[in-house]
User: Fold these one by one.
Assistant:
Number 1:
Amino acid sequence: MSATAFSSRSDPSSESPLVTVRGLSFRRGDRIIFQNVDLDIPRGKVTAIMGPSGAGKTTLLRLISGQIRPDAGRIEVDGVCVHELGRKDLYQLRKRMSMLFQSSALFTDLTVFENVAFPLREHTRLPENLIRTLVLMKLEAVGLRGARDLMPSELSGGMARRAALARAIALDPMMILYDEPFSGQDPITMGVLIKLIRTLNDALGLTSIIVSHDVKETASIADYLYLISDGLVVDHGAPLALESSSSAWVEQFLHALPDGPMSFHYPAPSYAEDLALREEPPRA
Amino acid sequence: MLDGLQRLGRLTLGWLNRLGRATLFLLRLLGTLGALGRRPGLIIKQLYSVGVLSLPIIAMSGLFVGMVLGLQGYANLVDFGATSSLGTVVALSLVRELGPVLAALLYAARAGSAVTAEIGLMKATEQLAAMQMMAVDPFARVFAPRFVAGFIAMPLLAGIFTAIGILGGYFVAVYQLGVDSGAFWSQMQAAVGLVDDVINGVVIKSVAFGWVANWIAVFEGYDAIPTSEGISRATTRTVVNTALVVLALDFVLTAIFFGV
Amino acid sequence: MGNFKKLELAVGAFVALGLAAFFMLAMKVSNIAELGEDKGYKITARFENIGGLKARAPVTLGGVRIGRVAGIDLDMRSYEAVVTLSIEPKYNQLPTDSSASILTSGVLGEQYVGLEPGGMDEYLKNGGSLKLTQSALVLEKLIGRMVTNAASGDKPPPKTP
């Protein structure tokens, strides 16, 4: 695997998907997380992977980024099979990918500036003044240039995510993975993040993969959606196309209906019998 | 009865499994030492955390232990009219045993637990995963500097503990109990051998304890379950396991060097 | 980065303190002065019984330490203990008829070799040996003798060899 085979940015106009997943199977202990899942992530677009909590969305991001290995199947990023790479090659690939963690994962002992500068300092030999310029540019893009000397503990949740985003674009990656970027945010912060994700994707020619269960926000900026549940891809397509999906589950999920294929009641014996009102054979 | 045996077997296997993982962890850590040499700043920063910040407790404890040794030693020697040997008693106790062992235990409680908690917290807040995603090896950037700094700090702290302890014993002996100052030092100097006692005692023991204490501290943090309960248990394990291993190792080293 | 300078200073002070502690342990606490001692010249002395004498025990003359016990061996033909003494070079005027005794320092103390000077004009050199020796007092034999004396009345005790 020669280093020159890697280009630093993917060509947005090329047809082949940036990430292809074929026949992915993964289980944790006795639980089957994925069984025979196929996915394509198109280049230059914002793709959302949605599903109920615990469906394995974060696990999918970890599999794509090579943090864990699939039990079966094949995951390719830009033509390279991720889980067959050795550590050095994997690190090379990771320099072109970025991930935004749910907890923002800023380094708590460094300032915002130092956090954004971290990947530049570790992977490039740029002089300090150039690094400073780059960091300030990235911070400006997310609107935090004035917050550069704050410590992560002094940031609000939304600001921390934006700082982490600035760090994620520090090395101009080809792809950003977002792990639940909207969870627990107030509407204004959410609006800011939505705008940022979409704008950065288009301005920098990125490919973005968003994992979320915030339907409205995610669907508003996604070009393509995958809905997964119970280890399978239930449906996929452009947001508009999914609105008229035939699947009752998709309808329940997209419209946030409290009851439907995902039952409101956790399986239990008959109500009457439980309250010992009268003898009755238990109903399923 | 069979149940008990089964449990014992399971515990042993679990323990061996853990030991194996800890060893692999250490080997991987040692593999990054070459690159670390080019970034001394990381080690210095950690030396401050585990070394300098441990000084107060080490120094104060050393002082008190030395003073107590002076008092206790005097109480026992005065019946034989041998109080001029007090310097010997204080020095040998500290140099051979109490210096390295107590310093190691205090170190585990103060610095070891802090390192475990810090690394565990980094694991829980996904900072370690973020580092890996940025193609930076946490072994080189987080674990190795802490291990190396602690390994350097441990013997220094043990030496400081021992020296301050002897001084503490000196002050109690001479200024409080009236032992002759000249006898205190001269008897000590006659009885304490540089190689036999100081090197075999404080130096070798504290180096061995430093290796063990820092290995456990860093590994427990790395291995912690990333929840608040998991971190608290990992921190407890660091202190307890370090204490047990240090004391067992102390027995072995004492038998080797000071056994007759 | 001014913080880092202060940090470096603190770490430097810490390391210096640690080294100073070890220095003190080496200088003031231990017998480092006695390390350069292998330049002493060696003489031997034979004893019937060395008691609890150990290697590196002091060798004194008139109470002054002039050397150390360098080695203890057993002569299988004469069944005598052969003790090698290392005497510091500056004490090179020991008469050849000096005697060596194994004494105990204090009541419970460790045993050492005490030399008493003779009157000859020739002095001991490296490889020489002391002819007159006094073995260690073994407590059990002393007690045994006392018991025998008490049992057999007031007969004077036989001379010790």
Number 2:
Amino acid sequence: MEAAINARDNALNAGRSMGEEYRPERQHPEPTSRVLQVSPVTTASHDQSSSPLRRNFQESVPLTSKELEFLGLAFALGESDPRWSFGPGAENALRLQRSLETIANAWGLSPSTLTFFSDRYLAFYLAIHGVLIANDFPSISLSTIEKKEVLAIVDGLPDSLPRHHYGVGIDGIFDALGDDRSLHILQIRNGETGISQPELPDGALILDATSALPGDLVEFDLASRPWHAIVLDATSWGGPRGLYALAINPALHWRNPMPTLDTLMPTFGANYGLTMLAALQLEEFLGRDHRAIALANERVREIVSQVADVDIAGRDTRDRLSLSFLYTESEELQRSLYADGFLFDSGSACSSSQLEPSHVLTRMGLLSHGNVRLRFRPENLASAVEFAHALIEKVEAERSRR
Amino acid sequence: MIEIDSRGSKCPQPIIDLAQGILRNPAEVEFRLLSDDVATWSDLTAWSRMTGHQVTASTPATFLIRRVRN
């Protein structure tokens, strides 16, 4: 942050106004990022051998120093309204447009269909209510593992609108896809287990892609499907928390359900700097060696399968892996592996911060205690095998104590 | 029928108590687990699938379990 403020001061001392582009003496190679073609910072470099993320398998990880520098600069150059990071002006409008294009292209969507928000609940609310007030559906179909926001919004709908809740099989095969005339609200990929939706129903769709990976939507050939709205979450590609995108299909009916003058599209409700950062991180995500990530996932599966009584969710779960070990306590596993420098998440109830087990694990029929949730990224791949061996050692040690 | 009382225990203890009770009574086929832990139902569902048992009946704090295979 200090560097960013110094940069701003230098710019101001040089007699530039806030709206003009600031070009410091460049000490780095030319940026390869399309988003930052006009920016003074380069994309984050990830030195995997010394990265603090080397043993971190958690879903959410700290920003890299380059990302922090970017955000610091964004806020330092912004106006008093923090949404206007980098300040208003043509240069920033261009940066924002490039960011939108980067994000939209990665998801196979048109940039003009996307609007950004800082509130996930709001994005889902606008998606569901906006579709329902502009169309006449006889019922809603949704799975039991949808996000809690989605379940709450649907719970709040009039009782006269029937709902069909379909279950989810252990291998990720949704066991029914509802009535074709229904409005289907579907999770494309589950964020806790990494399990993906293998097929789409023929009916109208609202797609929850908040845990999906770029490429997931492309596989479904969206152009030929009646999708009404899609919700994205920047954390799905390693982007910042608190940035959600709502895509609305202009070819179908949607009406803004909020009391607003803008009845067609909600206004941009997110921070510009965060949106640009998300686009930067998406570029980094797309450049990852996804085959190496899939191989690491498979290798960890093989190693942990050597211990008895392990419940592994799904098969092709890309960069996520959910494992549950019978007769173990996830909090104890987290504690003992943390002592070895490893970090991971858990969906178990057996931790002091949670009273109930993950509703996803419960509804999928997966073991909810002894749960270990991993997310693979380039920085932690080299530690994946070491982690798997350490994990089974701790599992066996804990079982032998009981 | 063997009764296993795990009331007051938090997960994974009720499942461990059940597994140990079954191990101690290899000839028994039916077991009753008493547990007031909110996670027991979901754990039992997965445990039954993984270990060859069946939950034949349940109330909020009582679960009847049947051994399907050894």
